[in-house]
Amino acid sequence: MLNTTLPFPLWEGFTPAKIEQHTDSLTIHLSPTRHPICHCGSVSAEVHDTSIRTVSDRSIMEYAVTLKVPVRRLCCPRCGILTEKINWLEPYSRQTTRLVLFVENLLTKLPIKHISELVKLHWTTVKNIDKRRLAREVKEPDWSKVKRLVMDEFALFKGHRYATVIADADTHQVLWINEGRSRESIRPFFEMLGDYCQQIEAVAMDMNTAFDLEVQEHCPNAMVVYDLFHVVAKYGREVIDRVRVDCANKLKHDKLARRRVKRGRWVLLKNRSNLNDKQAGYLEELLTANKDLMVVYLMKEQLKDLWYCRSQDEAKKLWEIWWQQVMESGVQPLIQFAQKLKKYLGGITASAVHPLHTCRLEGMNNKIKVMKRMAYGYRDTAYFFLKIRSVFPGDPR
Fold first, then answer.
1. Residues linked to residue 83 through DSSP beta bridges, in sequence order
2. How far apart are CA 64 and CA 219, in angstroms?
3. Transposase IS204/IS1001/IS1096/IS1165 helix-turn-helix domain: from which residue to which, for each copy (predicted)?
4. 191 burial class (0-12, 13-18, 19+ CB within 10 angstroms)?
């Protein structure tokens, strides 16, 4: 146990009265050297009471530092009974401002677990410091410039628990995230948007009825644009996969041919331009040997053309041709899909006016999944959402 006074003022208004040295840490007892100062700036001579607060500070050499700070409550004539102002210690904080700034600087370079071990703070304490930093640094968007939106969902936890993310279609800034994918879950976003809802021109989404209805209710001037990626993915699951399985079942007598069809899923779903020579040959073999697969594959390619029309009238004419060919094909999974797709026709032809898609947002979702996997999940969803918004601040206009 040492009694000493440090020659430089680490703690303004206080001086070490006693230092206890342990194996790998120091406990420093401070004593005040001046009259307490109120947050209003007045110097108060009357102390209501004093309590000892245990505070962590930056390490000195290899020793972790714990401070015992006598924090006084004042009887201020202007403010009433209030805790004194200490420049190097935020109100109610258990870490000095110096330590907090040091941790915030490390948070841009190291994972929380490593910082926790380095500065001898609990993981949750470091996380809370980071959460406050993000809340301070994440910028609110300029809502007056937001004209077009993209909306999508991603898996938040196992067990079909999802979150909805909404981004600016032009700057790709993540504007808002919330748990759930129902109308009630996304309604707070439009309530927050307020009068700016009137200026929204288009919203890109998948064929989610909840998203569609909420946009129609709050954004009367917005056109709903259904994303090509989601429609084609749905076509792959409900049409191509179904027809492929049916074709395989018809080939039970020919095990080799049946195996070829069953294993042909990915060459049927991939874009032709992404196939190598071997895969292209495999695809041609499948389509030549199976008429129904040939039909649904060609109809998929024609369906994509709807998103590249120059006008809504052109898109509607192309739809009528596609619809007629579907009805004449006699392939039931294809006909059923077309009947379900018909009620979403307005959102498909709208892509001729607003050529929006959620591909960039899908890329964001993939990065979000990587963040979640690297952290082995986030228990604090508010913190996770702040991390996402900080990673996607948007492109400058």
1. 73
2. 56
3. 84-133
4. exposed
Closest CA to 319 of 307, 328, 336, 329: 307
Q: Which two tokens stand for residue 204?
A: 């890109």
| Tens of pLDDT, residue by residue, the chain (397 residues) | 444 444 457 899 999 999 999 988 999 999 999 888 888 888 876 888 999 999 999 998 889 999 999 999 988 888 888 888 999 999 899 999 999 999 999 998 888 989 999 999 999 999 999 999 999 999 889 999 999 999 998 888 776 788 999 999 999 999 999 999 999 999 999 999 999 999 999 999 988 889 999 999 999 999 999 988 889 999 999 999 999 999 999 888 888 889 999 898 899 998 888 899 999 999 999 999 899 999 999 999 999 999 999 999 999 999 999 999 999 999 999 999 999 999 999 999 999 999 887 777 778 888 888 888 777 667 888 999 999 999 899 887 6
Alpha helices in the chain (DSSP H): 97-107, 112-119, 123-137, 183-193, 209-218, 228-235, 241-249, 255-262, 265-269, 277-289, 291-304, 312-329, 332-342, 345-349, 359-374, 381-391
Distance CA 18, CA 77 (A): 33
CB atoms within 10 A of CB 119: 20
pTM exceeds 0.85: no
In whole angstroms, give the CA distance from residue 345 to residue 358. 18
Q: How many CB atoms sit inside 10 A of residue 207's CB?
A: 18
Domain boundaries of the chain, sorted by first residue: 1-94, 97-137, 143-227+356-391, 228-352
**Fold of the CATH domain 143-227+356-391:** Nucleotidyltransferase; domain 5 (3.30.420)
Burial class (CB in 10 A: 0-12, 13-18, 19+), 386: buried
